[in-house]
Amino acid sequence: MGSNAEEGQAKQQIPLLTPYQMGNFHLSHRVVLAPLTRQRSFGNVPQPHAVLYYSQRATKGGLLVTEATGVNDTAQGYPDTPGIWTKEQVEAWKPIVDAVHAKGTVFFCQIWHVGRVSNTGFQPNGKAPISSTDKEMAPQLRSNGLDTAQFSPPRRLTIEEIPEIVNDFRIAARNAIEAGFDGVEVHGAHGYLIEQFLKDQCNDRTDQYGGSLENRCRFALEVVEAVSGEIGADRVGIRLSPFANYMECGDSNPKALGLCMVEALNKHGILYCHMVEPRMKTVGEKVECPDSLVPIRKAFKGTFIAAGGYDREDGNKAIAENRADLVAFGRHFLANPDLPKRFFLNAPLNKYNRETFYTPDPVLGYTDYPFLEETA
């Protein structure tokens, strides 16, 4: 028996390393790079150092999702996050996409708008950030544990303005395809603009975008419809975190919200739903909880990606028990560019360094995590 056959047999025994057909995309394994904000896109333009970062993590038949990428000039709330609303940004993404495709990898661009998770310093002409609401957020300690983020009082979007934002998502999706991406993931999680409409702790509107569950889901579904209409539903995913409470954005009935969304998404026939596990209440905080994504997973007809605090063992378990089709890894993939190989060999993992997650250095904590030593 040749070594390739042996390797193939071994992979069959590791659920995360089995092949999977995601719509039109043939994946050779189920280990996905989760979208990770890295804050190294100076002036909101993707940089040449991202070519190495993403291509290091690219494998034949793998799926990578980019860091969250702004849809317009009001979408920013963090320093040096990339955008995809200008020609310059689209052109800057092209060599990054080409490098990932050269490895035979499927590459999706996550498109976002932060909404009120911003301040006037990030906004054009120092205007107020936009949101579903005009409720202000308290200052928050940043994920690095060092800086405090200050948020400006947001301005509530008028009904007339909402279609403009929906259209910005549509154009961002078109731009992503022009840049060469295989599709887009709409960021509907973690307390950003779409979730500011979805969640009843934040959304206090009394018009057709607020109140009932259907009304709160309206904006998210209008974005999905517009993006799907532009590039095809078979190239569209969405990330949701109904159970999480990020950025003062919790919900009184997260299970109902999750089910309402996936049942509506089924009508649009989108490619995948990427959902954050209930155990992740806030960034990096894993807690025991009785809630489960299983009822939502069962209700959704497309590919289901689970994320949030996974390691090799419980990732394998999630696939083996059919609780997910794919599993997204963030911090472990950040620190282990060859994560699928390490999972195959059950090799030890590099430890991630939280202090360099968001620093602007183009190498340190970005492209300098070591690969496994190649054995002779």
For the largest beta-sheet, the strand count, sense and barrel status come to:
8 strands, parallel, barrel
Give the overall average pLDDT.
94
Helix content: 25-40%
- Secondary-structure element pattern, one letter each: HEEEHEEHEEEEEHEHHEHEEEHEHEHH
Radius of gyration: 20 Å
Name the strands of the widest sheet in spatial order. 3-4-6-11-12-13-16-17
Distance between the termini: 20 Å
Tally the helices: what do you get? Answer: 11
What global shape is seen? globular
Contiguous runs where pLDDT drops below 50 for at least 5 residues: none
Report the portion of residues in β strands: 15-25%
Question: Can you count the beta strands?
Answer: 17
What structural class do the secondary elements suggest? alpha/beta
Structure description:
The protein has helices at 3-12, 49-56, 87-101, 162-178, 193-198, 213-231, 254-268, 294-299, 312-320, 331-335, 339-345; strands spanning 20-22, 25-27, 31-33, 63-65, 69-70, 106-112, 130-131, 140-141, 148-149, 155-156, 183-188, 236-240, 272-276, 280-282, 285-286, 303-307, 326-329. The chain is an alpha/beta fold and 376 residues long. The strands form five sheets. Strands 3-4-6-11-12-13-16-17 form an eight-stranded parallel barrel, surrounded by four helices. β12 (236-240), α7 and β13 form a beta-alpha-beta unit. α6 (213-231) runs parallel beside α7. The protein is globular, with a radius of gyration of 20 Å. The model has no long low-confidence stretch (mean pLDDT 94).
